[in-house]
Amino acid sequence: MADHKHGTMNTKSHEATFAGFITFVKWGVIITIGILIFMALVNA
Q: How far apart are CA 26 and CA 14, in angstroms?
């Protein structure tokens, strides 16, 4: 096993990946809600 000291891990890439994931999910939800509203208005 590799020697690891608590608190020494570089988390910059993890934080960037998580921020990208949150942005992707946010826009996915916004687009999905927009499509559902559009479908409701067109079908009325």
A: 18
